[in-house]
Amino acid sequence: MSDIKKLLPNIISIFRIVSIHLFFYSVFNKLRFISFLVLLLAALSDFFDGYIARKLKAESKIGELLDPIADKLFSNAVLWGICFFKSPTLPNYIMAVSLTLRDLILLFGGFIVVLKKIKVTMKPIYLSKICTTLIFTYIILSITFNKTVLLEVFGYVIVLLIISTFWIYLRRFFKGFKV
């Protein structure tokens, strides 16, 4: 297999990180279609980087780290961007705060695991993948449409999913943590 094929999933994850800048530029300049397009491509890249890695048998340790980092950076940055530039609603702030807190706590736990050389296997849960997909969907809808009650309710449902996934990860972490 050529080197470029092995790198393709990681290149797609890096695109998602770079697309944060494209998103902010398009939102700041009120380029709605470009914002929508960047979000759509970033959301699709979240699916395709893992799919391509499995299909091409190009899974790597760096890819295992890069993909969730790209997801977390993109979703957090874009949610905060929506709060400040597009739609400063209560559900958006609650979602951004809960997602950021969850991700920071998980990141801190990951650092502890690495520093202490603790053997803990933390595979992504299916509910977390659904949550990420719904966050991308919510972000696209927030950029595309004006505020609606249905969109706010959708935001609160996602907040509950964020909290649920955090709780599940926390339980799995301590269950696998041997003192």
How would you describe this structure to a colleague?
By secondary structure, the chain is mostly helical. Helix content is 84%, strand content 0%. It contains six helices and no strands. α3 packs antiparallel against α4. The relative contact order is 0.12. The model has no long low-confidence stretch (mean pLDDT 84).
Rg: 17 Å
- Calculate the mean pLDDT score and round it: 84
Number of helices: 6
Structural class: mainly alpha
What kind of sheet is the major sheet?
none
Oligomer: single chain
In N-to-C order, the SSE pattern is HHHHHH
The helicity comes to over 70%
The CA-CA distance between the termini, in Å, is 43 Å
Poorly predicted tracts of residues: none
Shape: globular
Number of strands: 0
The fraction of residues in strands falls at under 5%
Features:
6 helices, 179 residues, single chain
Task: Please give the structural blueprint.
Elements: H1 3-28, H2 32-55, H3 61-86, H4 90-116, H5 126-144, H6 149-176
Helix pairs in contact: 1-2, 1-3, 2-3, 2-5, 3-4, 3-5, 4-6, 5-6
Care to give the gist of this entry?
This protein has 179 residues and is mostly helical. The chain has helices at 3-28, 32-55, 61-86, 90-116, 126-144, 149-176.
